């Protein structure tokens, strides 16, 4: 048996590393048979070792308690941070015994030194003390209320609670004497519950309900309206440890982060990644904790739907989860490689909500409401206990039916955001080379009885339009731009729908984009792609419906969405749902999935998905002879609106538009004005904060290295690592070679992409506006091609014969001094090819009519010589194509300077070979000289004060 997953652990800053020691319930008779052994993370090296018994002596005063480990954030080989969960909130209970939590606070403990680790731990502990002093008892009770096993003996639980409360009280201040009365006051929540169990009428029933994450029975009028789940993103979050202490520790936190940067910078010589470390840490905490978007369960696989749950007996949880929803997989790499299964806690991004409700068992009429389960039409903010009713209070659904003519149910909504092509709105659109679409989310709606003996599951998905396209974040309504070739789009879309078929079976795609205007650009492309796939792959047909949401619901008549379900209702009936009875499948299984999209897959999509989910719920309840009253379904609408808000905040940084209709099924002017404000908010997020956040997301997921922060500092934007621009550029090289090389005997030696200044003059400004060009080298000539990336054609090219090349200069080529990466001589290199011509035509322009025209004078008779200047593109973005089967060494170059040197040597080798072939002709040896093209000093002289001010202002805003 593998070690049990650590549900609570003590993190101590020892002399030589951080010690992670799981805390066990010492008095519980149901303790795990094989607890996880403590481990140590060494400072700086991040090496993980299991501690032997003689090394378990820990100093609790130098530690902090945590509810799990998210992973290890490695900024560089010498700078890492352990991410631990210090605060959580229960949001649901699955199968009556598996609590589900949302992360509400984390601590990032540096592994650079013990001093820095102690500083971070002290801050976390001071936050806890401030939280207790502020009178917030929920966190204290949550720590006491450990659900090791539901069946542990009551006496043991109470003893543990008293011990935990006393322990927490005694450690609130070091070397402080305290009386029993002081301890009781400080931990009034824990002792109050202990006394209530002994003296209240309900006695130990309360404890049983709490063990299952249920609410205490309260028949007061105020309790009747507290039965609706509230999504944390939609309401002010309860104060977390960090929130309470933030005012008091703001200045100290700033000094701590600056100290970390200074210490690390001494080791890595002011690496840009470290200069942005404070912002990275801040963004990490915003993503993982403040957003309240990350969920986990210790013993239930949140990443898989009911139909895809695996038999995980004998396997650690992380080995059974669906990899695409295991968000912190990269952060857990060190623990996975070390085999420390007890510390590997899978975390899922998305939404989890739960609501208990009752419905009449015969006819639509509503009997007298059950005070424990009434679904209020105007619910207030719920508590954790409201998420599911208890089987202790409702022994069986049959008894409830006999007494009240109602049956009780629990509805759980789980949205799982894939970690593939993850990111933010305009920075992650369309599809990638692996067939993953942006904003891909699987949403499962689970309906069950309180005892979980009868369970229904319905799954649907949403994702961006599966074609290559992009949109600029600098416009309120940006026009979509289609990318890549027809063949590339077909391959990616086929891969995408193949993955859907393997996971869900049949697929019916519903597109909600407009049929006219800018959205139709990608809408038409999507429709044509589906038709092409259906005609090419006859064995798998993709259902297709194009529902122009804005046209059909014009005038805020969103109820017209019902017209869509009139069209696809039979398809959804055929797909059905999954049903389970007494823990075993009934034979009814969902055989297909509804795939919905709009442009963002947020607002319109959530309205349609809520409608599909309501339709599935009605079908499931109909099998039990139950009909829901539409007038008492506000709880359902609110649950789905919360789901939409959560997903929207993760992708667009604001709540979902059209949320008023999702909540109330009504649309009015106030909702439209609210949507306008959210749209403006999205716009400013798109152009300011999203770029760094996107870089941080890619880094946390392991899609990019720390180099992404160097690139961000230089350009204040982030690229898309999932879409291979290198492949696009290689395709452009191939297209260019076919167009410009007319002689079939003229073999291609190599092709590269470079940045280059314009060649309209003999001596162009080497620091002027650089554009991306393609350089082709054959055995007889060299070509400089300007490429139209949108039309995938050569717009113009110049040709120079090999024998006309006179000299080559290569070396440092610095065009900007604003960022440190701009002044790195190894990363900023280029070369100049000088040539001499004698009235030879070298310029040709390929027009949009696909005709070839010549330069105005048809020649360069006024030029006795010329030069081409080329600057190396960032190594990660450049493309290379060789004309032979040899392995090109340019891609293996250590840096851009080495890559330039290799290209220059290849050009010289061709020139030398030509001279050897034509000893009596024009062939001659080419002089190659290493010298600065534009030196650092020259670049500094050319950088104006206004340019420096502009960059400083931009860096201040964006970073």
Automatic annotation (TrEMBL):
The HSac2 domain, residue ranges: 723-890
Compositionally biased residues, Polar residues: 217-226, 390-403
Domain spans labelled SAC: 288-653
The keyword Amino-acid biosynthesis appears for this protein: no
Keyword DNA-binding part of the UniProt annotation: no
Molecular function terms, GO-annotated: phosphatidylinositol-4-phosphate phosphatase activity
Biased composition (Acidic residues): 136-155
Signal peptide (UniProt feature, chain positions): 1-21
Positions of region (Disordered): 125-155, 210-245, 356-403
Pfam families (alphabetical): hSac2, Syja_N
PANTHER family in UniProt: PHOSPHATIDYLINOSITIDE PHOSPHATASE SAC1 (PTHR45662), SACI DOMAIN PROTEIN (AFU_ORTHOLOGUE AFUA_1G15890) (PTHR45662:SF7)
Name assigned to this protein: SAC domain-containing protein
């Amino acid at each position: 048996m593998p070690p049990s997953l650590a549900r609570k652990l003590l993190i101590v800053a020892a002399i030589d590393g951080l010690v992670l020691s799981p805390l066990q319930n010492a008095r519980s008779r149901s303790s795990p048979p094989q607890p996880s052994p403590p481990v140590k993370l060494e400072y700086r090296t991040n090496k993980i070792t299991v501690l032997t018994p003689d090394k378990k002596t820990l100093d609790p005063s130098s530690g902090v308690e945590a509810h799990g480990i998210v992973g290890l954030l490695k900024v560089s080989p010498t700078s890492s941070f352990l991410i631990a969960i210090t605060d959580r909130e229960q949001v649901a209970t699955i199968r009556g015994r598996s609590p589900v939590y949302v992360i509400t606070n984390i601590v990032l403990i540096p592994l650079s030194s013990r001093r820095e680790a102690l500083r971070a731990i002290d801050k976390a502990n001071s936050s806890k003390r401030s939280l207790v002093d502020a009178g917030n008892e929920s966190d204290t009770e949550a720590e006491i209320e450990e659900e090791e096993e539901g069946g542990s003996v009551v006496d043991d639980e109470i003893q543990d609670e008293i011990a935990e409360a006393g322990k927490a009280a005694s450690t609130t201040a070091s070397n402080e004497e305290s009386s029993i009365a002081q301890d009781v006051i400080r931990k009034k929540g824990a002792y109050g519950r202990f006394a209530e169990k002994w003296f209240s009428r309900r006695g130990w029933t309360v404890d049983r309900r709490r063990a299952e994450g249920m609410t205490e029975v309260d028949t007061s009028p105020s309790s009747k309206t507290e039965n609706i789940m509230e999504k944390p993103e939609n309401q002010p979050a309860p104060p977390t440890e960090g929130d309470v202490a933030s005012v008091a520790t703001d200045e100290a936190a700033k000094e701590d982060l600056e100290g970390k940067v200074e210490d690390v910078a001494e080791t890595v010589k002011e690496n840009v990644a470290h200069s942005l470390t404070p912002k990275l840490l801040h963004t990490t905490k915003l993503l993982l904790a403040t957003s309240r978007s990350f969920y986990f369960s210790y013993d239930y696989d949140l990443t898989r739907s009911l139909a895809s749950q695996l038999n995980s007996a004998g396997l650690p949880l992380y080995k059974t989860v669906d990899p695409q929803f295991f968000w912190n997989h990269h952060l857990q790499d060190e623990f996975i490689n070390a085999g420390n299964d007890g510390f590997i806690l899978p975390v899922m991004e998305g939404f989890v909500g739960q609501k208990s409700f009752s419905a009449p068992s015969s006819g639509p009429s509503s009997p007298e409401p059950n005070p424990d389960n009434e679904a209020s039409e105007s619910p207030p903010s719920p508590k954790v206990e409201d998420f599911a009713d208890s089987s202790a209070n409702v022994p069986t659904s049959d008894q409830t039916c006999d007494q009240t003519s109602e049956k009780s149910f629990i509805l759980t909504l789980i949205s799982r955001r894939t970690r593939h092509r993850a990111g933010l709105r305009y920075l992650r659109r369309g599809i990638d080379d692996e067939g993953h679409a942006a904003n891909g989310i699987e949403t499962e709606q689970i309906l069950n009885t309180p005892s979980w003996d009868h369970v229904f599951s319905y799954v649907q998905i949403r994702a961006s339009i599966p074609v290559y396209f992009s949109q600029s974040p600098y416009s309120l309504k940006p026009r979509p731009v289609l990318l890549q070739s027809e063949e590339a789009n077909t391959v990616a879309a086929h891969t995408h729908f193949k993955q859907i078929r393997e996971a869900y079976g049949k697929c019916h795609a519903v597109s909600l984009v407009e049929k006219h205007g800018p959205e139709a650009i990608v809408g038409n492309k999507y429709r044509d792609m589906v038709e092409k796939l259906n005609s090419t792959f006859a064995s798998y047909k993709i259902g297709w419906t194009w529902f122009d949401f804005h046209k059909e619901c014009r005038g805020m008549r969103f109820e017209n969405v019902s017209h869509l379900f009139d069209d696809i209702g039979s398809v959804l009936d055929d797909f059905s749902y999954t049903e389970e009875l007494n823990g075993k499948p009934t034979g009814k299984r969902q055989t297909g999935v509804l795939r919905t999209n709009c442009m963002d897959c947020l607002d319109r999509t959530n309205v349609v998905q809520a409608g599909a989910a309501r339709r599935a719920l009605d079908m499931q309840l109909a099998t039990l002879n139950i009909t829901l009253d539409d007038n008492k379904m506000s709880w359902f609408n609110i649950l789905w609106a919360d789901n939409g808000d959560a997903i929207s905040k993760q992708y667009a940084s604001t709540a979902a538009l059209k949320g008023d209709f999702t909540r109330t099924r009504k649309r009015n002017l106030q909702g439209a004005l609210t949507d306008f404000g959210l749209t403006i908010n999205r716009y400013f997020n798109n152009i300011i904060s999203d770029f760094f956040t996107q870089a941080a997301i890619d880094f946390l997921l392991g899609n990019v290295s720390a180099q992404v922060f160097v690139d961000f500092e230089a350009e204040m934007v982030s690229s898309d690592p999932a879409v291979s621009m290198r492949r696009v550029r290689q395709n452009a090289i191939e297209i260019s070679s076919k167009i410009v090389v007319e002689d079939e005997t003229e073999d291609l030696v190599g092709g590269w992409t470079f940045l280059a200044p314009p060649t309209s003059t003999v001596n162009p400004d080497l620091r002027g506006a650089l554009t991306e060009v393609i350089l082709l080298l054959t055995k007889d000539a060299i070509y400089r091609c300007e490429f139209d990336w949108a039309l995938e054609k050569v717009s113009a090219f110049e040709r120079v014969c090999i024998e006309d090349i006179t000299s080559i200069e290569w070396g440092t080529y610095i065009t900007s001094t604003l960022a440190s990466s701009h002044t790195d001589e190894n990363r900023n290199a280029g070369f100049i090819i000088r040539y001499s011509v004698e009235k030879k035509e070298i310029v040709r322009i390929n027009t949009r009519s696909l005709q070839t025209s010549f330069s105005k004078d048809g020649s360069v008779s006024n030029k006795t010589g010329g030069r081409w200047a080329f600057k190396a593109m960032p190594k990660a973005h450049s493309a290379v194509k060789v004309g032979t089967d040899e392995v090109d060494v340019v891609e293996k170059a250590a840096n851009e300077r080495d890559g330039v040197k290799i290209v220059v040597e290849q050009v010289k080798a061709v020139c030398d070979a030509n001279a050897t072939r034509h000893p009596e002709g024009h062939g001659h040896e080419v002089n190659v000289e290493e010298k600065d093209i534009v030196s650092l000093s020259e670049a500094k002289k050319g950088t104006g004060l206004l340019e420096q001010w502009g960059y400083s202002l931009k860096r201040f805003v964006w970073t």
